[in-house]
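[worker-b] picked up task from shared queue
[worker-b] task type: protein-ligand structure
[worker-b] ligand name resolved to adenosine-5'-triphosphate; SMILES cross-checked against name lookup, match
[worker-b] sequence length check passed
[worker-b] input payload:
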Amino acid sequence: MIDLKLFKKFIERVDKIDTEQIKIFLNDFYCNISNFLRVLDFNNEGFIIFDTEGIVKYANITAAEVLKFETPEELIDKSIQEVIYNKDIKYYLINKIKKQEPIIEEEHIMGVPHIRVMRTNLIPIRDNTNKVILFLFRFVDITRKKMEEIKNRRQDNIESMKHLASGLAHEIKNPLASITIHLDLILRYISKLEIENIKKDIYEIVNILKDEVQRLNSIVQDFLSSIRPISLDLTKVDIIELIKDVIKFLSYELEEKKITIEFSPEDNLPPVLGDQKYLRVVFLNLIKNAMEAFDNVKRDKKLITIKMFENHPYIEIIIKDNGKGIEPKNIEKIFTPYFTTKETGNGIGLTLVHKIISEHHGNIRVESEVNVGTTFYIILPSYKGESKKYLP
Ligand SMILES: Nc1ncnc2c1ncn2[C@@H]1O[C@H](COP(=O)(O)OP(=O)(O)OP(=O)(O)O)[C@@H](O)[C@H]1O
Ligand SMILES: [Mg+2]
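[worker-b] inference finished, payload out:
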């Protein structure tokens, strides 16, 4: 401990004490001060002492680390200008010191090279005459806490939105079912009607209504399946056959739109460990999106290429189109629910794709250039090696 009373007494009597004793006392005092400063060094708070001109008189190790100096000594006798890089806090601090005002528990961005959020305090230190002689600047890194807070808040929002929306979707499902039943009833009554012309018109109208109900129903279904946790039935999936099957399913539309698909899987590919039904949804959506990327686009050859190879312990699938591409500002949004740039799109396809791939412990990423095309890279665990342990 630094005993200031003793120190004062010592100063008062210094001319009566012999040199040897003075040496011992000062040495003692030096040790105590060093220990005290060491305590400050091993604190997770940064400490800097400025004089009234804003010149550093002391800094601890944490402060040097945050400000990217090798040692605290390097900060000594430097000005605020020279030690703090972040403009906002730098000028704020200079101003506060000039006005001799404190900073109390304020959050500021500080530190290099990464942005860090600091809780800061500036305490003016006064002498006996109440004159400010020094400033203690204390700061502690609260970046992680801040990030957690933001993440939690976002997650809470998402969860309550999901809850609300799924309730709503359920409420919509019941009247939809009832409308369908009543439309069928109307159709049955009409069939008994005599007047052929009117009958035809009503048939048409009711069928349009039925189609619309069907469309609403599939929106609700898609939405519910995109937010519900899915439970996978993992088996050995022949992914080549699965993709061939999806292409066959789309062949009519592909021919109509004059789109060529080149599918070239590597030889001897192991199967995928996955859920056949959900994986079909993945590839159907990705290929449909690739096809829709040619809408209103002129190309000599509208081409979708699908490549597949082993990337142990995964199978990598690359789906590339030379369609319209995705604008950079939209790239981040494509996997979020309801994001669509299409007149009749629901914006659910890629949300579902992302969810299914994540549940398979796989990954999907996208690269795209406007007017050049889009490439999706997917990895899914292969059915061999370490993946086997997931199987019953
Ligand atoms: N291959 C692609 N080329 C260009 N844009 C794409 C491609 N794939 C996705 N997108 C963009 O991402 C958006 C979201 O795709 P997503 O499949 O989720 O919804 P959607 O296709 O619009 O509607 P749906 O729910 O019917 O699939 C699309 O509207 C489109 O703007
Ligand atoms: Mg889609």
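[worker-b] attaching auto-annotations
[worker-b] The first helix runs from residue 4 to 12.
[worker-b] releasing lock
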